[in-house]
Design a protein that fits this description.
single chain; 97 residues; alpha+beta; 3-stranded antiparallel beta sheet
């Protein structure tokens, strides 16, 4: 099947009209932007030029229990643990593993 962005229809006068969806989208689309602020924070600017901050690190921290209770996440963590050998040390002073 050949993909196309055009379709045709017959109008009330019986004439065939061609509609190009690509042209319609280009004429109506708006640009949005997302900027990496570093350290897990992003700024999203929407179509109305309103800015929103996305704070991935704090969102994960605030939802940690929900995340680790997710069965898919548990399987990923379990697979990592099974493949890991050796000791893991945590430096609480510098918040590093």
């Amino acid at each position: 099947m050949l993909a196309t962005t055009e379709f045709s229809y017959t109008d009330s006068n019986g004439d065939t009209q061609i509609v190009n969806m690509g042209d319609i989208v280009r004429a109506n689309e708006t640009e949005t932007k997302i900027v990496n602020n570093g350290s897990g924070s992003y700024t999203y600017k929407n179509e109305k030029d309103k800015e929103f901050t996305i704070d991935v690190v704090n969102d994960v921290a605030d939802n940690f229990q929900t995340i680790v209770d997710n069965q898919q996440v548990k399987r990923i963590i379990e697979n990592i643990v099974k493949k890991t050998e050796g000791n893991i040390l945590y430096d609480a002073c510098n918040n590093r593993i």
